[in-house]
Amino acid sequence: MGRIIRVTSKNNRVYTDILRLHQKKYRDREGRYLVEGENLVREAIRQHADILDLVMREGSGFLSEALEEFPAGSVYVFDGKLFDAAAPTESSQGILAVIRKPDQAGESLSALDRPGGNLVVLDRLQDPGNIGTIIRTAEGAGYEAVLVIRGTADVFSPKVVRAAAGAIFRMPILMTDTWKEMAELVRGCGKKLAVTSIRDHLQYYEADLSRDIALVIGNEGNGCDPELIEAADLRVSIPMGGQLESLNASVAAGILMYEAVRK
């Protein structure tokens, strides 16, 4: 069983580490990120995520269970003010964890090679809610992995982690520097690049998106890189009613990813 360490000082190492991890540059540099909330922390434990520190608010009812489920390490109990200052959200459930980012390059490359498997690619998306929802939906639709092109917002930010609802612990995630690097990688694994484009008239349900597809979801305001659109193997559109030109990125991604399930 783990041991309890009570923390009341702002100079405590765990407290200062958590504050730093609110910022992307420290998450990138230190290879760690924050998970907040009872359900997400439970899921992190269940999925054997590499939990470095487990932190609770004084009086949390989850303490005894945490000690049993986290036997290898210490549980840090912060007083109320200290925990509230450390938590990423104002309405915290009183529990958070510091987790080491997985080295998923090998697992992701293995996922890319699976015959018939589909992938989703994030091209410079900026909204954390969209990113997390797409990761969650990708798991639900049976996609194998998530590829992230540089310029996309941090997939390990607290908002993305919350929106992904546990899928962040299970979906292989692979970072690429450019869309050209991504394209070379996925085509080398026998996948076709599919993008959405309002200029093309092949409706998504007329295309075969059922297998061996790398589906690219573009930036919320500007869409996919124009050169990437031109280089794609499939360019599809989603029919729009009314005066709309496009859908929210995560909604569009969900429609397209579940086309693979439908077929």
From TrEMBL:
UniProt cross-references to Pfam families, sorted A to Z: MRM3-like_sub_bind, SpoU_methylase
Domain RNA 2-O ribose methyltransferase substrate binding: 34-105
GO function terms (MF aspect): RNA binding; RNA methyltransferase activity
Name recorded for this polypeptide: RNA methyltransferase, TrmH family
Gene3D superfamilies (UniProt xref): 3.30.1330.30, 3.40.1280.10
A GO CC term assigned to this protein in UniProt: cytoplasm
Leader sequence segment: none
SMART domains with a match to the protein in the record: SpoU_sub_bind (SM00967)
Top-level taxon of the source organism: Bacteria
The species this protein was found in: Eubacterium pyruvativorans
InterPro entries given in the database record: Alpha/beta_knot_MTases (IPR029028), MRM3-like_sub_bind (IPR053888), Ribosomal_eL30-like_sf (IPR029064), rRNA_Methyltransferase (IPR051259), SpoU_MeTrfase (IPR001537), SpoU_subst-bd (IPR013123), tRNA_m1G_MTases_N (IPR029026)
GO biological process annotation, one example: RNA processing
Keyword flag Methyltransferase: yes
Record keywords: Methyltransferase, Transferase
Similarity annotation: Belongs to the class IV-like SAM-binding methyltransferase superfamily. RNA methyltransferase TrmH family.
